[in-house]
Amino acid sequence: MSSWELPSESTMHADASNGDMISAVEPDTSFRSRIEDASKELPEEEGIIRRPDGLKYLSPERATAFLGLVRAGSAIANRLSGELEAEHGISLRAFEVLLFLAVFAPEGGLRMTELTEQAPLSQSRVSRLVDDLERRGLVGRSPARTDGRGVTVSITPKGTERFKAAQETHLAGLDELLFSHLDPAEIRQLAAITSKIVDACKTGPK
User: Fold this and answer.
1) Cβ–Cβ contacts within 10 Å for residue 114, how many?
2) So where are the chain's domains?
3) Concatenated DSSP letters for 129-185?
4) Stated pTM of the model
5) CA–CA separation, 98 vs 112, rounded Å?
6) What angle do CA 112, 117, 120 make, to 5 degrees?
7) Apex CA 96: angle with CA 101 and CA 149, to 5°?
8) Is 184 left (phi over 0), alpha (psi -120 to 50) or beta?
9) For residue 123, what are the CA distances in angstroms to 52, 119, 126, 135, 158?
10) What is the dihedral of CA 127, 129, 132, 133, to 10 degrees?
11) How far apart are alpha carbons 194 and 175 in whole angstroms?
12) Can you give the pLDDT of all 206 residues of the chain as single tens digits?
């Protein structure tokens, strides 16, 4: 792996299976050191290092912030999904679908379009997830009550029981990997920062 590459998904899974999240989540100080060494006496403007040959790259601080965010998010999601699959037979994304239906949906059902808006996935990916959950008896589909043209996805009693069983694993994993390492002020700060980033991604470039 070069100094510029993110760890592969297989590497993250290997770290998670060994219970070793340090290399995947903590900022790579050696990577930052390499950038600092390469950037000595080079001009920096608005977080961008410019070389005489025209090549540009992020400053050490910005590179660490970006890679830390990406690596931490990917590593935590992979670990959570692996634990849910091992203990309850569902992925993190499938758990999120059950969560939306069990907790946030009126009478346990959402139109497929609403479910797609809630999940950070494409419409085709959500459709495949729902297909799999329906085959396993965890959700059901029916014509939408309002106009009969759309489709409503509803959680079944079996799906509710699966969600109840999996929620403790999910919450314990989040606490172990994320919240136990932050104080309340840091959690509020993280929520504000990530919300700002998500909103910017939704609106697109200025």
Assistant:
1) 16
2) 1-88, 90-206
3) HHHHHHHTTSEEEEE-TTTSSSEEEEE-HHHHHHHHHHHHHHHHHHHHHTGGGS-HH
4) 0.74
5) 13
6) 115
7) 45
8) alpha
9) 45, 9, 5, 18, 24
10) -110
11) 18
12) 333 333 444 344 444 444 444 344 445 566 667 666 666 667 777 889 888 888 888 888 898 899 889 999 999 999 999 999 999 999 999 999 999 999 988 787 888 888 888 877 778 888 899 999 999 999 999 888 776 678 899 999 999 999 999 999 999 999 999 999 999 999 999 999 999 998 898 775 55
* Phi-psi domain of 41 (left: phi exceeds 0; alpha: psi -120 through 50; beta: other): left
Q: Which residue has the tokens 């200025």?
A: 206
Q: Buried b vs exposed e over 149-174: b needs ≥16 C-beta within 10 Å?
A: eeebbebbeebeebbeebbebbeebe
- For the domain spanning 90-206, the CATH number is 1.10.10.10
Do 94 and 132 contact (CB within 8 A), yes or no?
Answer: yes
Both tokens assigned to 126: 């959500």
